[in-house]
Task: structure prediction
Amino acid sequence: MLTKIKLIVSSCLVAVVTLLTPAMASTNDDKVVGLQLYSLREEFPKDIKGTLEKVAKAGFKEVELYGFSKKTQFFGMSATELKALLDANGLKAVSGHYMLGTYLADGNQEELIAAIEACKTLGSKYLTVPYILPDVRKTEADYHRIAKLLNVAGKMAKKAGLQLAYHNHDFEFTKFGDTNGFDILLKETKKKLVQFELDLYWVVRSGNDPKTLFAANKRRFSMWHVKDMDKNDPKLNAEVGTGSIDFKSIFAEAKLSGMKHFFVEHETNYKPDPLGSVTKSCEYIKKELL
Result:
Protein backbone atom coordinates (compact mmCIF):
# COMPACT_ATOMS: atom_id res chain seq x y z
CA MET A 1 0.00 0.00 0.00
CA LEU A 2 2.81 2.40 0.91
CA THR A 3 4.47 1.73 -2.44
CA LYS A 4 1.21 2.50 -4.26
CA ILE A 5 0.82 5.78 -2.37
CA LYS A 6 4.38 6.77 -3.27
CA LEU A 7 3.71 6.02 -6.92
CA ILE A 8 0.51 8.09 -6.90
CA VAL A 9 2.23 11.03 -5.22
CA SER A 10 5.14 10.77 -7.63
CA SER A 11 2.78 10.76 -10.62
CA CYS A 12 0.96 13.82 -9.32
CA LEU A 13 4.21 15.69 -8.84
CA VAL A 14 5.28 14.86 -12.39
CA ALA A 15 1.94 16.13 -13.68
CA VAL A 16 2.22 19.39 -11.75
CA VAL A 17 5.79 19.97 -12.93
CA THR A 18 4.75 19.24 -16.51
CA LEU A 19 1.99 21.85 -16.27
CA LEU A 20 4.15 24.48 -14.62
CA THR A 21 7.41 24.04 -16.49
CA PRO A 22 6.46 25.89 -19.74
CA ALA A 23 5.35 28.98 -17.82
CA MET A 24 8.27 28.82 -15.43
CA ALA A 25 10.70 28.35 -18.31
CA SER A 26 9.43 31.43 -20.14
CA THR A 27 12.16 34.03 -20.02
CA ASN A 28 12.99 37.24 -21.85
CA ASP A 29 15.13 35.15 -24.20
CA ASP A 30 12.00 33.36 -25.41
CA LYS A 31 10.20 36.57 -26.36
CA VAL A 32 10.46 37.46 -30.02
CA VAL A 33 11.16 41.11 -30.82
CA GLY A 34 12.01 42.30 -34.31
CA LEU A 35 14.14 45.21 -35.51
CA GLN A 36 13.79 47.28 -38.67
CA LEU A 37 17.44 47.52 -39.69
CA TYR A 38 16.91 51.04 -41.01
CA SER A 39 17.33 52.02 -37.36
CA LEU A 40 21.04 51.22 -37.81
CA ARG A 41 21.32 52.78 -41.27
CA GLU A 42 24.70 54.41 -40.71
CA GLU A 43 26.39 51.18 -39.68
CA PHE A 44 24.50 48.41 -41.50
CA PRO A 45 25.47 49.23 -45.13
CA LYS A 46 29.14 49.52 -44.14
CA ASP A 47 29.36 46.39 -42.00
CA ILE A 48 26.44 44.02 -42.54
CA LYS A 49 28.13 41.07 -40.83
CA GLY A 50 29.19 43.00 -37.73
CA THR A 51 25.85 44.77 -37.41
CA LEU A 52 23.85 41.54 -37.55
CA GLU A 53 26.07 40.03 -34.87
CA LYS A 54 25.36 43.02 -32.61
CA VAL A 55 21.63 42.88 -33.34
CA ALA A 56 21.47 39.23 -32.30
CA LYS A 57 23.45 39.90 -29.11
CA ALA A 58 21.10 42.78 -28.29
CA GLY A 59 18.25 40.27 -27.98
CA PHE A 60 16.45 40.55 -31.29
CA LYS A 61 15.18 37.40 -33.01
CA GLU A 62 13.69 38.84 -36.19
CA VAL A 63 14.67 41.64 -38.53
CA GLU A 64 13.10 43.63 -41.32
CA LEU A 65 15.41 44.45 -44.21
CA TYR A 66 15.62 47.57 -46.35
CA GLY A 67 17.72 49.07 -49.16
CA PHE A 68 17.25 46.41 -51.85
CA SER A 69 17.49 47.10 -55.56
CA LYS A 70 17.89 44.77 -58.50
CA LYS A 71 21.23 46.35 -59.40
CA THR A 72 22.96 46.55 -56.02
CA GLN A 73 20.97 43.90 -54.13
CA PHE A 74 21.49 44.61 -50.40
CA PHE A 75 24.28 47.19 -50.43
CA GLY A 76 26.37 44.96 -52.68
CA MET A 77 25.50 41.70 -50.93
CA SER A 78 23.33 39.09 -52.62
CA ALA A 79 20.23 37.69 -50.96
CA THR A 80 21.94 34.29 -50.73
CA GLU A 81 24.96 35.75 -48.93
CA LEU A 82 22.75 37.78 -46.61
CA LYS A 83 20.63 34.73 -45.78
CA ALA A 84 23.77 32.86 -44.69
CA LEU A 85 24.73 35.70 -42.32
CA LEU A 86 21.23 35.87 -40.88
CA ASP A 87 21.20 32.12 -40.28
CA ALA A 88 24.61 32.24 -38.63
CA ASN A 89 23.26 34.75 -36.11
CA GLY A 90 19.93 33.05 -35.46
CA LEU A 91 18.00 35.86 -37.14
CA LYS A 92 14.95 35.56 -39.36
CA ALA A 93 14.21 38.19 -42.02
CA VAL A 94 10.44 37.98 -41.70
CA SER A 95 9.89 41.05 -43.87
CA GLY A 96 11.70 43.54 -46.03
CA HIS A 97 10.96 47.04 -47.27
CA TYR A 98 11.12 47.11 -51.07
CA MET A 99 10.58 50.38 -52.97
CA LEU A 100 9.76 48.52 -56.23
CA GLY A 101 11.37 51.07 -58.52
CA THR A 102 8.79 52.96 -60.57
CA TYR A 103 6.05 50.33 -60.16
CA LEU A 104 3.60 52.58 -58.28
CA ALA A 105 4.11 55.31 -60.88
CA ASP A 106 3.99 53.44 -64.19
CA GLY A 107 3.41 49.75 -63.40
CA ASN A 108 6.92 48.63 -64.42
CA GLN A 109 7.32 45.23 -62.74
CA GLU A 110 11.09 44.79 -63.12
CA GLU A 111 11.98 45.71 -59.51
CA LEU A 112 8.89 43.98 -58.16
CA ILE A 113 9.90 40.68 -59.77
CA ALA A 114 13.45 41.06 -58.42
CA ALA A 115 12.10 41.80 -54.94
CA ILE A 116 9.91 38.71 -55.01
CA GLU A 117 12.92 36.57 -55.88
CA ALA A 118 14.98 38.15 -53.09
CA CYS A 119 12.21 37.50 -50.56
CA LYS A 120 11.96 33.87 -51.60
CA THR A 121 15.73 33.40 -51.32
CA LEU A 122 15.74 34.96 -47.84
CA GLY A 123 12.87 32.82 -46.65
CA SER A 124 10.84 35.93 -45.83
CA LYS A 125 7.08 35.90 -45.47
CA TYR A 126 6.28 39.54 -46.23
CA LEU A 127 7.23 41.82 -49.09
CA THR A 128 6.45 45.27 -47.72
CA VAL A 129 5.93 48.48 -49.68
CA PRO A 130 7.40 51.15 -47.37
CA TYR A 131 6.55 54.47 -48.98
CA ILE A 132 4.82 56.28 -51.82
CA LEU A 133 6.78 59.08 -53.43
CA PRO A 134 5.06 62.51 -53.23
CA ASP A 135 4.65 62.93 -57.00
CA VAL A 136 2.71 59.67 -57.18
CA ARG A 137 0.14 60.44 -54.44
CA LYS A 138 -1.09 63.96 -55.09
CA THR A 139 -4.80 63.24 -55.60
CA GLU A 140 -7.57 60.93 -54.49
CA ALA A 141 -7.45 59.33 -57.94
CA ASP A 142 -3.80 58.46 -57.34
CA TYR A 143 -4.73 56.36 -54.31
CA HIS A 144 -7.43 54.52 -56.27
CA ARG A 145 -4.81 53.71 -58.92
CA ILE A 146 -2.24 52.66 -56.32
CA ALA A 147 -4.75 50.33 -54.67
CA LYS A 148 -5.20 48.52 -57.99
CA LEU A 149 -1.44 48.22 -58.44
CA LEU A 150 -1.07 46.84 -54.91
CA ASN A 151 -3.68 44.18 -55.68
CA VAL A 152 -1.73 43.15 -58.78
CA ALA A 153 1.52 43.01 -56.82
CA GLY A 154 -0.24 41.14 -54.03
CA LYS A 155 -1.44 38.52 -56.48
CA MET A 156 2.09 38.08 -57.85
CA ALA A 157 3.49 37.80 -54.32
CA LYS A 158 0.84 35.27 -53.31
CA LYS A 159 1.64 33.13 -56.33
CA ALA A 160 5.26 33.06 -55.11
CA GLY A 161 4.19 32.03 -51.60
CA LEU A 162 4.61 35.53 -50.13
CA GLN A 163 2.34 38.14 -48.59
CA LEU A 164 2.38 41.74 -49.79
CA ALA A 165 2.05 44.42 -47.12
CA TYR A 166 1.89 48.21 -47.08
CA HIS A 167 3.61 50.39 -44.46
CA ASN A 168 2.09 53.78 -43.62
CA HIS A 169 3.43 57.17 -42.62
CA ASP A 170 1.16 60.12 -41.77
CA PHE A 171 0.56 61.51 -45.26
CA GLU A 172 -1.95 58.75 -46.06
CA PHE A 173 -4.36 60.32 -43.58
CA THR A 174 -4.59 63.58 -45.54
CA LYS A 175 -8.26 64.24 -46.27
CA PHE A 176 -9.86 64.06 -49.70
CA GLY A 177 -13.36 65.25 -48.89
CA ASP A 178 -14.81 62.71 -46.45
CA THR A 179 -12.15 60.08 -47.08
CA ASN A 180 -8.36 59.80 -47.02
CA GLY A 181 -5.64 57.82 -48.75
CA PHE A 182 -5.36 55.21 -46.03
CA ASP A 183 -9.10 54.46 -46.07
CA ILE A 184 -8.95 54.08 -49.84
CA LEU A 185 -6.05 51.62 -49.64
CA LEU A 186 -7.75 49.63 -46.88
CA LYS A 187 -11.10 49.43 -48.66
CA GLU A 188 -9.91 48.88 -52.22
CA THR A 189 -7.15 46.33 -51.65
CA LYS A 190 -8.14 42.72 -51.15
CA LYS A 191 -7.49 41.38 -47.67
CA LYS A 192 -5.97 38.12 -48.92
CA LEU A 193 -3.63 39.97 -51.27
CA VAL A 194 -2.61 43.04 -49.26
CA GLN A 195 -1.97 43.22 -45.54
CA PHE A 196 -0.77 46.31 -43.67
CA GLU A 197 2.22 47.05 -41.49
CA LEU A 198 0.88 49.69 -39.12
CA ASP A 199 3.45 52.20 -38.00
CA LEU A 200 2.06 53.06 -34.58
CA TYR A 201 4.09 56.25 -34.22
CA TRP A 202 2.93 57.68 -37.54
CA VAL A 203 -0.70 56.82 -36.79
CA VAL A 204 -0.54 58.69 -33.48
CA ARG A 205 1.44 61.52 -35.09
CA SER A 206 -1.35 61.92 -37.67
CA GLY A 207 -3.90 62.41 -34.88
CA ASN A 208 -5.45 58.95 -35.12
CA ASP A 209 -5.81 56.09 -32.63
CA PRO A 210 -4.39 52.67 -33.61
CA LYS A 211 -7.08 50.91 -31.55
CA THR A 212 -9.82 52.62 -33.57
CA LEU A 213 -8.19 51.37 -36.77
CA PHE A 214 -8.00 47.86 -35.31
CA ALA A 215 -11.71 47.84 -34.51
CA ALA A 216 -12.70 49.14 -37.94
CA ASN A 217 -10.32 46.83 -39.86
CA LYS A 218 -10.09 43.64 -37.84
CA ARG A 219 -7.04 41.43 -38.42
CA ARG A 220 -5.78 43.60 -41.28
CA PHE A 221 -2.57 44.72 -39.57
CA SER A 222 -0.36 41.64 -39.50
CA MET A 223 2.76 43.69 -38.65
CA TRP A 224 3.52 46.78 -36.58
CA HIS A 225 6.34 49.28 -36.34
CA VAL A 226 6.91 50.12 -32.68
CA LYS A 227 8.57 53.42 -31.96
CA ASP A 228 7.73 55.95 -29.29
CA MET A 229 7.06 59.69 -29.52
CA ASP A 230 9.18 62.19 -27.66
CA LYS A 231 7.14 63.84 -24.89
CA ASN A 232 8.39 67.33 -25.68
CA ASP A 233 8.72 67.23 -29.44
CA PRO A 234 6.33 64.89 -31.34
CA LYS A 235 8.50 65.16 -34.45
CA LEU A 236 11.13 63.07 -32.66
CA ASN A 237 11.15 59.40 -31.74
CA ALA A 238 11.97 58.15 -28.28
CA GLU A 239 13.07 54.81 -26.86
CA VAL A 240 9.98 52.66 -26.36
CA GLY A 241 8.56 53.20 -22.90
CA THR A 242 10.05 56.68 -22.44
CA GLY A 243 7.72 58.62 -24.72
CA SER A 244 4.05 59.58 -24.86
CA ILE A 245 2.47 56.58 -26.65
CA ASP A 246 0.44 54.17 -24.49
CA PHE A 247 1.81 50.90 -25.83
CA LYS A 248 0.26 48.74 -23.11
CA SER A 249 -3.28 49.53 -24.30
CA ILE A 250 -2.23 49.01 -27.91
CA PHE A 251 -0.54 45.65 -27.28
CA ALA A 252 -3.67 44.57 -25.39
CA GLU A 253 -5.50 44.74 -28.75
CA ALA A 254 -2.88 42.76 -30.70
CA LYS A 255 -5.27 39.90 -31.46
CA LEU A 256 -7.94 42.23 -32.82
CA SER A 257 -5.30 43.88 -34.99
CA GLY A 258 -4.15 40.55 -36.39
CA MET A 259 -0.54 41.38 -35.47
CA LYS A 260 1.85 38.47 -35.97
CA HIS A 261 5.18 40.29 -36.03
CA PHE A 262 6.43 43.69 -34.92
CA PHE A 263 9.64 45.64 -35.37
CA VAL A 264 11.31 48.28 -33.24
CA GLU A 265 12.31 51.24 -35.39
CA HIS A 266 14.06 54.53 -34.65
CA GLU A 267 13.85 57.05 -37.48
CA THR A 268 14.86 60.19 -35.59
CA ASN A 269 16.57 61.07 -32.32
CA TYR A 270 18.57 57.84 -32.44
CA LYS A 271 22.03 59.24 -31.72
CA PRO A 272 24.59 59.13 -30.17
CA ASP A 273 24.16 55.38 -29.70
CA PRO A 274 21.69 53.83 -32.18
CA LEU A 275 22.33 50.25 -31.07
CA GLY A 276 22.00 51.22 -27.41
CA SER A 277 18.68 52.94 -28.09
CA VAL A 278 17.08 50.03 -29.91
CA THR A 279 18.44 47.65 -27.26
CA LYS A 280 16.70 49.65 -24.52
CA SER A 281 13.48 49.56 -26.55
CA CYS A 282 13.83 45.80 -26.93
CA GLU A 283 14.39 45.31 -23.21
CA TYR A 284 11.35 47.42 -22.28
CA ILE A 285 9.11 45.53 -24.69
CA LYS A 286 10.19 42.15 -23.34
CA LYS A 287 9.77 43.24 -19.72
CA GLU A 288 6.60 45.34 -19.91
CA LEU A 289 4.62 44.49 -23.05
CA LEU A 290 5.05 40.78 -23.80
Summary: Residues 65 and 96 are 4 Å apart (CA to CA). Residues 2-26 have pLDDT under 50 and may be disordered.
